[in-house]
Amino acid sequence: MLSYAARRIFGFQKRQDRISISQYTDGTMSRNGEKLDGGTGLGRETVIKCLEELTKYRVMVKLSDNDPRTTAGAEYALALDDTVDLVGLLKRHDDKSKAGRAKMQAAMTKNNEARSVRPTDVGRCNRHTISNRNTGKTRSRRQRRFDTNRSLRGSTHLREAS
Prior knowledge:
The chain has 162 residues and is α+β, with helices and mostly antiparallel strands. It has helices spanning 2-10, 21-26, 44-56, 86-115, 141-153, 156-161; strands spanning 16-19, 60-64, 74-78, 129-131, 138-140. 48% of the residues lie in helices and 12% in strands.
């Protein structure tokens, strides 16, 4: 989001620019309908949330709201001085990192519990068998090959060939 805004603002040698939500999501078109860029590829809700976060931490400054006459979008400028809330950004980073680690730990715990060996599985799994944990059935490689051949014998394309 920030890189798209910087490209749109600084790429046209401006200090601020009107960028609509649809330009962030889908990109811009020339007057003759040619697509100039693809935007960010993010969804509308994500773009709105990102803009709120960027203005909250004063990385971008919202100068004016959407102009209803031209529907050109809100006018934004990038903060080039020390008004950016670095302490808030660092706290947000730490909070997101802690939440991500907790989520990862919960997923790993759940995965390990699902992989744990049940007493009924001991001794049944070796390299020649495949265990179906949902039904408890174990079929050897030879049995699976037999089932495959039997199903092929009943198919119509083999009957026509013979």
